[in-house]
Amino acid sequence: MWNRPRFDLKVRLTLRVAAISAACFAAISAYFLITADRAAHARIDGIAAIVAKTLELQQGKVLWAASPRSDFPNLDPVSAYVMTPGLCLAFRGVGGEMLQRFCSGAPIPEDPPPQIFTAFYHSLFDPGREAARPVILRGTKLGEAVVSVDPAVQTAEAWHEAGRLMLALAIALPLLCVLVYAALARALRPTRMIRAGLERIAANDLTARLPPFDLAELSAVRDVFNHLAESLDTALAERAELTRKLIALQDEERRHLARELHDEFGQSLAAIRALAASARQTAAQECPSLLGECDGIARTATGMMETLRGTLFRLRPPDVEELGLVASLEGLVAGWNGRSRGETRFSIRFDGSFETLPATISANLYRIVQEALTNAAKHAGATKVSMELTMHAGEIALAIDDDGRSTDRAAKSGMGLLGMRERVAALRGRLSFEAGPAGGSALRVVIPLAAANPPALEHAA
């Protein structure tokens, strides 16, 4: 299954805030550039209007004085007031010829704008565009006053304004990211508690509860979480109680079946063996040819009685509470080793003290081991079955490994595995059944010792 990459929420939100902030800075920079461009054009338009008006006054003075000597156009008087670096003043005649032009020098900038900014600025704006105003006297157009600014000077001024904004962005953006990340880390600190609570729930610790939170959204999550934990705890308690009743009913049915087999079927087999022995004595005296049939009947009855004993042992195990869990399991393993006649080797190892183990857990552990050994012997064809029962850190762990066939194992032993799951669930434990690392199958059961606190689970005597 494809998994999408996961990112830390604080990092993701911080990056989004940084992206939005950078976009805002870019919009502000664009606004300042547009405003600066409009101001520059308005300035040269105003200078062009002043130059045109000055030239009109010059020509009017010439006509009024009727002076034969005319120095029109003369841009020197107005240039003293309006000239700035990179500014050009000119007068263009009616025919388009440039009659006079006056430009101020542009200083070489100490920090010239980068080529990429120059290309970007020239693509968006039109630095160096001329501003022309007509020079009109008595309704006659004498020419045009033309004002322009060196494109390099205008670009350098724009870069100077944008550079200040970029410097502010370079300082403010990292600081903003740090502050946002710190604020988010503080605000999202309760999510660690929520995660820890969910992990406890996943580990079957239904006593997990979340404390109140300051944020309304997290408080709503806390209320839902606690309600869910309480509901799940109640549902599992009711399920465990129902499972205990079902297991008790099953064990009672097993005891009843064991009594029926022992009283009815067992007595019938004993009678058959007695009749076979009597018939053999009679046949030995009167008809020796029937001795083989009598012996066959006796052997068949004996085999059926052996099978019946094994069945009765599985239906009605020894009193685990009286013998103890360790002795009962050792006897169970010894019985399986005896019945397998060396075809399958069963072994068990204990680590811990099980003398004070509650009867509820002891009886169900015995039943779980009994069912697991039956599955390994009947459905897996295992030649080696090893078990380990340990007690540590407030829980009991049972590990059963075999070298049998694991294909379709769960399907063939489905009812037995279901019974084991029910018993483990009634004790609030965990069960896993999977293929072993070196082949075969591995059964793992973990039961908390706190399982001794619920009402005692009835078990077969």
Detailed description of the structure:
The structure is a single chain. The chain has 461 residues and is α+β, with helices and mostly antiparallel strands. Helices cover 60% and strands 15% of the residues. The strands form two sheets. It has a five-stranded mixed β-sheet with strand order 5-6-7-9-8, with helices on one face. It has a four-stranded antiparallel β-sheet with strand order 2-1-4-3. Its main location: membrane. InterPro entries: HAMP_dom (IPR003660), HATPase_C_sf (IPR036890), HATPase_dom (IPR003594), Sensor_HK_TwoCompSys (IPR050482), Sig_transdc_His_kin_sub3_dim/P (IPR011712).
Counted up, domains total 3
Q: Could you give the order of the helices and strands? A: HHEEHEEHHHHHHEHEEHHEE
Shape: rod-shaped
The main pleated sheet reads as: 5 strands, mixed
> What distance lies between the first and last C-alpha atoms, to the nearest angstrom?
50 Å
Name the strands of the widest sheet in spatial order. 5-6-7-9-8
Low-confidence blocks of residues: 407-413, 453-461
The helical percent reads: 55-70%
In terms of structural class, how would the helical and strand content be classed?
A: alpha+beta
Q: Please report the number of helical segments.
A: 12
- How many DSSP-defined strands? 9
Tell me the Rg in angstroms: 50 Å
Question: What fraction of residues sit in β-strands?
Answer: 5-15%
Give the rounded overall mean pLDDT: 78
